[in-house]
From TrEMBL:
<dbReference type="InterPro" id="IPR055515">
    <property type="entry name" value="DUF7089"/>
</dbReference>
<dbReference type="Pfam" id="PF23363">
    <property type="entry name" value="DUF7089"/>
</dbReference>
<protein>
    <recommendedName>
        <fullName>ABC transporter substrate-binding protein</fullName>
    </recommendedName>
</protein>
Length: 261
């Protein structure tokens, strides 16, 4: 199921600098959430596993099945929205897992995603948005479910946590021009590719061409690149969000959805 992924150049140097004990793996199959049997295969390439113990009451009954499964008692890794690279700190050492869907992606971009995951895994932050929000997820759902539904709330929560992590990782990325120039160039290129889409986002949202959760996903993914965000997402690229985390995100959602009514 998993084989160690050889690293060299900048990705190897990033691992040495940020998460020297982390194991970078290739997955034999694509996944959104690894079932317990597959997740236990990580024991073959790590020293130990310490599954998360989460409170199922954090998740409302309306939440998607994958989320309710994730907060159950079984050892699971990953959620929809993780993209082509997932990471987990439920193992010792931490694991970064590259999925087969990236096989056709440019090597430089994959190297950046691996480097990003190594930095995120080193932050001592929650593995997924559900631990980030905790029982505040119910508050978020109460505000957003009536407007965008349970699936939209899930997608928004993923985006909000992505923005929160991006506030922390951006400082690292911005300093990589000389130390890790190849992954820095890939980070800069990814940001440049987002800019045209961001510039059109407000208009698309106003015309109903893009739904709110999808717009949030795009805007929040730009936080790590330090790009100028359109309203109402610009309020997420602030020191206040970095300082007040989930409480700030829920309050932002309350204000935003009041204005959308």
């Amino acid at each position: 199921m998993f084989t160690e992924r050889p690293l060299d150049g900048d990705p190897a140097a990033v691992r040495d600098a940020y998460a020297p004990d982390a194991v970078v793996l290739n997955s034999a199959t694509d996944f959104e959430t690894l079932d317990p049997a597959a997740a236990e295969d990580l024991l073959l390439v790590t020293r130990s596993v310490d599954p998360l113990a989460l409170d199922p009451s954090w998740v409302p009954d309306s939440a998607p099945d994958q989320l309710r499964r994730y907060v159950g008692g079984e050892f699971t890794v990953g959620l929809p929205g993780d993209g082509g690279v997932a990471w987990t700190t439920q193992t010792e050492p931490a694991c970064v897992i590259v999925k087969p869907r990236l096989e056709t992606s440019p090597d430089a971009f994959v190297d950046f995603l691996v480097a990003e995951a190594l930095v995120e895994a080193s932050l001592n932050e929650p593995e997924q948005f559900v631990e980030f929000f905790g029982d505040s997820y119910r508050d978020l759902a109460a505000v957003t479910d009536p407007a965008i539904g349970a699936t939209g709330t899930y997608q928004l929560a993923v985006a909000l946590y992505d923005a929160y992590l991006g506030l922390q990782t951006r400082e690292a990325f911005e300093g990589w021009a000389e130390t890790f120039p190849a992954v820095y160039a890939a980070w800069a290129d990814a940001g440049e590719r987002l800019e045209p889409r961001l510039s059109e986002l407000s208009g698309e949202l106003a015309r109903g061409q893009t739904d709110f959760a999808a717009a949030a996903e795009l805007a929040c993914s730009a936080v790590k690149h330090g790009l100028e965000l359109p309203a109402p997402f610009a309020a997420l690229d602030t020191a206040a969000y970095a300082d007040h985390d989930a409480d700030y995100a829920v309050r932002w959602a309350e204000k935003t959805f009041e204005q959308l009514e």
